[in-house]
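Handoff note, outgoing to incoming analyst
You'll be picking up this chain. Sequence as last confirmed:
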Amino acid sequence: MSSRSKWFVAIALALFFCVACILLAFVAKSFVDSRASSAAAQTAPRKGFMAPDFSLQVLGSNARTISLKGYRGNRPVMINFWATWCPPCRAEMPAIQDAYEKYQAEGLVVLAVDQMEPARVVQPFVLDHGLTFPVLLDGESVAADAYRVRALPTTVFVRKDGTILDIVVGGPMSKTFIERRVRELLRSNGD
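Most recent structure output, in case you need it:
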């Protein structure tokens, strides 16, 4: 074999080795990414699983916070992730207020979790619409991240035992739909 042929074989082998390493790295990265995304999907809140806890400041209170775990074991909770700029969120607020007024005596808790807006923007909306349930400020998206909220409104119905009955993404939810879900929530024991 001539020296020229030996160089050609050496370069071909080196090139083959480099391509093989690049392909192996790509396959390994794809495998790791798919495992990571499947692990993330397993930790996303789902029906029948425990609702992630959060603790957020109550609108109009400098120091008062509400934690979801404070209701676990005593009361069912409807968590509504919303914002004042969101038309479906605005449209469903009167129906949520009506359900709260109707079922509060039966133990229903409504937590309206505003997404990343300052109190000076949220407060006028709350006053104009006569909202009487707690409005929480999620300025850093802590609760929204825990619930993997990707669209507004997103509503999570949490049983008295802390497990998720249902997650509704999008809206606006109708008054009839909300009442049906709330009645189911009040009847549910987490079984």
